[in-house]
Amino acid sequence: MHGLINRAIQAFVCSTYGESRWRDVTDSAELGFSEFEAMLIYTDEQSQKILTAMEQVLERPLREMLEDMGTFLVANPQTEALRRLLRFGGVNYVEFLHSLDDLPDRVRLAVSDLSLPALELVETAPGQFKLICQNGLPGYASVMMGVLRAMADDYGDLVILEHSGSEEDAEVISVMLVETDFAEGRTFDLGANML
Fold it and tell me: Where does the record place the Heme NO-binding domain (predicted)?
């Protein structure tokens, strides 16, 4: 697994639970190190050991923590670059949803050796969608649930999200747009602030 993903897991745990709890997780995983390097590649076994240790040490269901991590990736100032990448997907939440099909390609433009599983958005009725998350990363759909929730807040829209099970080796997230402009969204400028 790409070090950038493992580094994101590390940043989430350190920010949410504290650095001492992260050391407890890495000690439990028995990796022999506690810091992930963002541009290295790690084995799937090492990444799985971290996820298993997180669930055991932090005593929370992994699915819940990964969803919280998805929210962290969008909402935390440490990860503003990812929020910017996602906001380039559209001027409103629906346009953002439709841009998710291209997200793995946009990510690869930013980090050429980072491959995310494919996403496919299907509109099932006006304001109702299902996002099909292909397998390839453990917990990918859970992280995407958090990303979708945080992006709805970012745009100021009210949505209902539900993990709808699996379809042909993929996990499905149901998205219902309840109200646009429900709250004031976060500001977003096309040009990055260089100061």
Answer: 2-158
